[in-house]
Design goal:
2 domains; elongated; eight-stranded mixed β-sheet; Rossmann fold; alpha/beta; 342 residues
């Protein structure tokens, strides 16, 4: 049961990566954990030159909207660190009312999806907007709004259901091994697990990595990746945020379509899969949320959630203005038609 339907090739690659991480010296492991979990952003030598590699999406706003002309924009956004600030307690990663109001307006202009590593129900409890698409557990739990534009049934797609019993087993084992590491929390995201070390003292990071590794050695069908102060544990099926993006575009009727312009905004390593899909499609824009330059497949940068909100607001204003212009042009043409002699 445990190893059924696992992509062997991908599983093996992931296993090598996991093994490599587990075999690192504790100094190398700490450096890897530090690199993906920047805490001293202000002291970073390149912090003031965040757009060295990619330009700011705010500076390039016109270029982005010009590229989308005549196409349907579809919005995809990660949650933690993108719509909400990264906070010490992951259970309190609330989004501001202003951000919620902005996302609500955005969804009246474009189909809008939240793509997150979190459990879908959990992220919904933070966002509370029924009109959005939600892809939880790194895209392994996708649900559309109950009232969709096509009037059909809500989309529901869960490609990793077979792993549910074993995920609960791994969850319990992680709770046991991490219970003596102060500040460590294990989050059950339904189809994947997170071990947060936002509140763990740096001198305990190596120990925590060892504890997590010791559990995963017994479960080759799971892969371990690292995000911002979090270990992510998920099945080795070939499914990620990039696949979720493709699935949602297809569900919206834009499979292999040139008339769509997806915009994906995210801050995490797991968002790179989606940026890569956009690059390969040669359509849309990937926007990385980061204060420091990173090796990324995204085309643009935004520094933090406040800049994300500013960008989303500009998109709403731009769309409303273009709709108003279209309406006025139509009215003028109808006026001209009416004034013509029959
Ligand atoms: Mg994030």
């Amino acid at each position: 049961m445990r190893s059924q339907n696992v992509d062997r090739k991908s599983g093996m690659n992931m296993e090598i990566r996991k093994k490599k991480f587990l075999e690192m010296s504790s100094t190398a492991r700490i450096n890897a954990m530090r690199a993906s979990s920047p805490t001293h952003i202000k002291s970073h030598p390149l912090a003031l030159h965040h757009n060295v590699q990619q330009p700011s999406a705010l500076d390039m706003f016109e270029q982005i909207t010009n590229a989308s002309k005549g196409k349907q924009i579809v919005m995809f956004m990660d949650y933690d660190g993108t719509l909400s600030p990264i906070v010490d307690d992951p259970d309190r990663a609330f989004m501001s009312d202003a951000m919620r109001a902005t996302v609500r307006k955005l969804a009246t202009c474009f189909p809008t999806a939240i793509v997150t590593g979190r459990c879908r129900d959990k992220v919904y409890s933070f966002v509370r907007l029924a009109e959005l698409y939600y892809a939880g557990s790194h895209g392994m739990d996708i649900k559309g709004p109950s009232k969709n534009s096509k009037g059909g049934e809500a989309i529901l797609f869960q490609p990793a259901t077979q792993y549910l019993p074993i995920i609960n087993e791994v969850y319990k084992a992680l709770l046991v091994v991490t219970k003596d590491t102060p500040g460590a929390t294990v989050e059950n995201n339904k189809f994947c697990l997170s071990v947060h070390f936002r509140r763990v003292h740096e001198n305990k990071w190596a120990e925590l990595a060892k504890q997590v590794g010791s559990v995963l050695e017994a479960y080759p069908e799971f892969r371990l990746t690292q995000g911002r102060k979090v270990f992510e544990i998920r099945p080795t099926i070939k499914w990620d945020k990039g696949k979720a993006l493709e699935f949602l575009l297809e569900s919206l009727g834009y499979a292999n379509c040139a008339d769509v312009y997806p915009i994906y905004i995210g801050d995490d390593r797991t968002d790179e899969d989606a940026f890569k899909v956009l690059r390969e499609m040669g359509q849309g824009s990937g926007i990385l949320v980061s204060k420091i330059p990173k090796d990324t497949n995204a085309s643009y940068l935004l520094q933090e959630p406040s800049e994300v909100m500013a960008f989303l607001r500009r998109l709403v204003d731009w769309k409303r203005l273009s709709l108003r212009k279209q309406f006025m042009l139509k009215s003028r043409l109808e006026g001209v038609k009416m004034s013509l002699p029959i």
